[in-house]
């Protein structure tokens, strides 16, 4: 068994540029062009990116809010073969937990024998003969949040190029997950960024059970303009009507930048609505 240290890849240094090979370029291009699930990422790594290393199993595990480690995605082995390892405490002594808590790559090339300090794994075997398991921590904003595991039937000795290759893959996975989270949040959490200021004010007045005519009188616009803006609000927030709009606003006042108050500040000008 070999445990590599806590050296972390830094973007932009000379060593990293040498390692960003055609395999990484292919993977990065695949991420950009394809809306991949994490299971599909694992499959692509096995079939394409890490094929020359004879990797036949890739998995991604994450740290949960309960301070456990949970299986998140995989390709290569049926996860039902390892039911007891789908979620386990972060303080257990395992290659995955060492990689996450100590922020380093854990490199084992003695399989099917596990190192003695991992006594919990002494009776664990893969369904097919394997020689090497490598665990790479995945960071978000310099904090370990998940890890990438690769398993190969080859005896892979640690070397700088392979280490940097795997770290780069970990960074790409982190960026891919971050991008998807941002896109999901944008779709699922409409807020002040998706409504104009005046649309937020109209929504607040709707919450006070004002009619379009009353809102028009308060804000100094025509009833027709208020009606069109109301339609735009419902469309942006995917709401079916005024009752749903009231409920949505009351549940999300802070996200709209409006504190809990009974009245809203009404603009004094009659400048046209932004569409």
UniProtKB/TrEMBL annotation:
<keyword id="KW-0804">Transcription</keyword>
<dbReference type="Pfam" id="PF00196">
    <property type="entry name" value="GerE"/>
</dbReference>
<dbReference type="InterPro" id="IPR036388">
    <property type="entry name" value="WH-like_DNA-bd_sf"/>
</dbReference>
<keyword id="KW-0238">DNA-binding</keyword>
<dbReference type="InterPro" id="IPR016032">
    <property type="entry name" value="Sig_transdc_resp-reg_C-effctor"/>
</dbReference>
<protein>
    <recommendedName>
        <fullName>HTH luxR-type domain-containing protein</fullName>
    </recommendedName>
</protein>
<dbReference type="GO" id="GO:0003677">
    <property type="term" value="F:DNA binding"/>
</dbReference>
<dbReference type="InterPro" id="IPR000792">
    <property type="entry name" value="Tscrpt_reg_LuxR_C"/>
</dbReference>
<keyword id="KW-0805">Transcription regulation</keyword>
<dbReference type="InterPro" id="IPR003018">
    <property type="entry name" value="GAF"/>
</dbReference>
<dbReference type="Pfam" id="PF13185">
    <property type="entry name" value="GAF_2"/>
</dbReference>
<feature type="domain" description="HTH luxR-type">
    <location>
        <begin position="188"/>
        <end position="253"/>
    </location>
</feature>
<dbReference type="GO" id="GO:0006355">
    <property type="term" value="P:regulation of DNA-templated transcription"/>
</dbReference>
<dbReference type="InterPro" id="IPR029016">
    <property type="entry name" value="GAF-like_dom_sf"/>
</dbReference>
């Amino acid at each position: 068994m070999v445990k590599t240290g806590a050296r972390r890849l830094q973007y932009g240094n000379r060593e990293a540029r040498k390692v960003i090979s055609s395999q990484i370029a292919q993977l990065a291009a695949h991420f950009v062009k394809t809306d991949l699930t994490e299971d599909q990422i694992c499959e692509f790594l096995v079939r394409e990116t890490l094929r020359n290393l004879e990797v036949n199993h890739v998995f991604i595990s994450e740290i949960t809010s309960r301070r456990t480690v949970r299986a998140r995605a995989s390709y290569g082995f049926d996860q039902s073969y390892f039911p007891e390892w789908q979620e386990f405490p972060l303080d257990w002594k395992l290659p995955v937990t060492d990689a996450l808590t100590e922020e380093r790559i854990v490199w084992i090339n003695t399989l099917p024998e596990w190192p003695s300090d991992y006594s919990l794994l002494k009776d664990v075997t893969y369904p097919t003969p394997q020689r090497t398991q490598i665990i790479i921590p995945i960071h978000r904003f310099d904090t370990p949040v998940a890890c990438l595991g690769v398993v190969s039937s080859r005896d892979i000795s640690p070397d700088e190029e392979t280490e940097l290759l795997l770290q780069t893959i970990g960074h790409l996975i982190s960026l891919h997950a971050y991008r998807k989270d941002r896109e999901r949040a944008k779709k699922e959490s409409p807020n002040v960024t998706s409504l104009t200021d005046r649309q937020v004010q109209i929504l607040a007045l709707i919450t006070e059970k004002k009619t379009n005519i009353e809102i028009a009188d308060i804000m100094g616009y025509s009833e027709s303009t208020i009606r069109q803006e109301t339609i735009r609000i419902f469309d942006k927030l995917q709401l079916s009507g005024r009752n749903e709009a009231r409920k949505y606003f009351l549940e999300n006042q802070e996200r709209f930048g409006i504190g809990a108050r009974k009245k809203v500040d009404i603009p004094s000008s009659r400048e046209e609505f932004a569409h």
